[in-house]
């Protein structure tokens, strides 16, 4: 377990900034008790963890430490950062653009499908094309995140079967990717 | 002849002790050392030896060629070749070995603000582009609508004109028709039916 280098920090922030707005700085801001959140890299996975906990975790051998804090994603072998569904609570809290889907669209999305216009309940205004979106149910439960297929204005003119959002991650991955989502052994 | 005189004096001393050992010119020199010799030797025993050694050394040094100084490329100031230095071969001095971690709040905030500014710029430019495209599309749509409306109006006009023309025509020979219909009890078309008569 180690802190991130400058390049790594930049890659992580870039990916997070796709989905979040200016309030992202709150995740590294000091908390009331004087503690703060830091990034830690353990076996290619990046965790957002409280500094006090990270310090305690140094007493655990590298091979024995499976996970700590919130896993944000992992670095690929080519050095890119891939965000995981486990980062959803953080993204949902600071989301820039949002998309609410109707009850009839929840299951198709959770099974890994893209979102079609017929399933869209509400949509953030002024969302450009290929911009990160956080997907919610109509009662504001975050389900996952994706990338907008068209801008808001364009998607208004779209036919009901037209894709509005390309899925990136959904809560169904907790079951589908159970084996690979978390570090094991 | 002075030298001969001195020689004779020395020979006197020498002759008493070592007569046979000193024939000719070389002999007296050695004998003189022999005579006073012991005291002289005890006084400075190493003097001539040291000098001899030094001399030998000097001779050896003279014999040996002086070692040439080897210069490095930097000392000579030769222009460097245009070659690629592989990554990791040249290690910068005074720099920390290995990775440089970013763990303090200030540098993290700096990186975050840089990234966010970049992202904002991207999104802004995307939005502006989208808005411009939307405006262009709207203008095109309006133009197309206007054109189609014009076309429709023209078509309607033509239709109307045709209708009027037809109506006028109908108005012109409408009375006769009515008359003929009233007279014959059938339409004028029927009345004007061609008939074939056989003579």
UniProtKB/TrEMBL annotation, chain A:
Cellular component GO terms held in the UniProt record: nucleolus
GO MF terms, alphabetically ordered: RNA binding
Keywords: Nucleus, Ribosome biogenesis, RNA-binding
Domain PUA: 97-172
PROSITE patterns in UniProt: PUA
GO biological process: assembly of large subunit precursor of preribosome
Localization (cell): Nucleus, Nucleolus
Main subcellular localisation: nucleus
InterPro entries: NIP7_N, Nip7_N_euk, PUA, PUA-like_sf, PUA_sf, Ribosomal_synth_fac_NIP7, UPF0113_PUA
Main function: Required for proper 27S pre-rRNA processing and 60S ribosome subunit assembly.
Subunit structure: Interacts with pre-ribosome complex.
Similarity section: Belongs to the NIP7 family.
Protein name per the record: 60S ribosome subunit biogenesis protein NIP7
Natural source organism: Trichoderma parareesei (Filamentous fungus)
UniProtKB/TrEMBL annotation, chain B:
This protein's record includes keyword Secreted: no
Biased composition (Basic and acidic residues): 141-161
Coarse class of the protein's main subcellular location: nucleus
Residues spanning the membrane: none
Region (Disordered): 1-69, 141-199
Keywords: Coiled coil, mRNA transport, Nucleus, Ribosome biogenesis, Transport
Record's subcellular location: Nucleus, Nucleolus
Composition bias, Basic residues: 190-199
Function: Required for efficient assembly and nuclear export of the 60S ribosomal subunit.
Description of how the protein assembles with itself and partners: Component of the 66S pre-ribosomal particle.
UniProt similarity note: Belongs to the LOC1 family.
PANTHER family linked: 60S RIBOSOMAL SUBUNIT ASSEMBLY/EXPORT PROTEIN LOC1 (PTHR28028), 60S RIBOSOMAL SUBUNIT ASSEMBLY_EXPORT PROTEIN LOC1 (PTHR28028:SF1)
Identification of the protein by name: 60S ribosomal subunit assembly/export protein LOC1
Record organism: Trichoderma ghanense
Higher taxonomy: Eukaryota, Fungi, Dikarya, Ascomycota, Pezizomycotina
């Amino acid at each position: 377990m180690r802190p991130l280098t400058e390049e790594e920090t930049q890659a992580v922030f870039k990916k997070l900034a796709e989905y979040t707005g200016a309030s992202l700085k709150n995740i590294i801001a000091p908390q009331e008790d004087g503690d703060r959140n830091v990034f830690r890299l353990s076996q290619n996975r990046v965790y957002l963890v409280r500094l006090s906990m990270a310090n305690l975790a140094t007493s655990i051998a590298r091979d024995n430490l499976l996970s700590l804090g919130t896993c944000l994603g992992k670095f690929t072998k080519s050095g890119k950062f891939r965000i995981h569904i486990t980062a959803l609570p953080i993204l949902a809290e600071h989301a820039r653009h949002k998309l609410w889907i109707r009850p009839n669209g929840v299951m198709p999305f959770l099974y890994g499908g893209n979102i079609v216009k017929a399933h869209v309940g509400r949509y953030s205004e002024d969302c450009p094309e290929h911009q990160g979106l956080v997907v919610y149910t109509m009662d504001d439960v975050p389900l996952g995140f994706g990338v907008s297929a068209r801008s808001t204005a364009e998607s208004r003119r779209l036919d009901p079967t037209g894709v509005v959002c390309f899925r990136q991650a959904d809560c169904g991955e907790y079951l589908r990717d159970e084996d690979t989502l978390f570090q094991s052994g | 002849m002075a030298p001969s005189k001195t020689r004779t004096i020395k020979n006197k001393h020498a002759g008493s002790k070592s007569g046979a050992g000193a024939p000719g010119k070389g002999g007296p020199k050695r004998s003189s050392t022999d005579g006073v010799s012991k005291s002289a030797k005890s006084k400075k025993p190493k003097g001539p030896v040291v000098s001899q050694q030094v001399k030998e050394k000097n001779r050896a040094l003279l014999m040996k060629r002086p070692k040439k100084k080897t210069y490095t490329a930097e000392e000579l100031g030769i222009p460097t070749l245009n070659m690629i230095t592989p990554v990791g071969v040249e290690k910068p001095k005074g720099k920390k070995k290995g990775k440089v971690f970013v763990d303090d709040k200030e540098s993290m905030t700096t990186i975050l603000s840089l990234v966010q500014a970049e992202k904002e710029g991207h999104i802004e430019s995307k939005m502006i582009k989208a808005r411009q495209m939307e405006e262009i599309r709207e203008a095109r749509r309006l133009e197309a609508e206007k054109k189609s409306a014009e076309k429709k109006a023209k078509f309607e006009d033509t239709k109307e004109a045709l209708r009027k023309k037809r109506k006028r025509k109908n108005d012109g020979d409408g009375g006769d028709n009515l008359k003929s219909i009233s007279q014959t009890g059938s339409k004028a078309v029927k009345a004007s039916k061609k008939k074939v008569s056989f003579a």
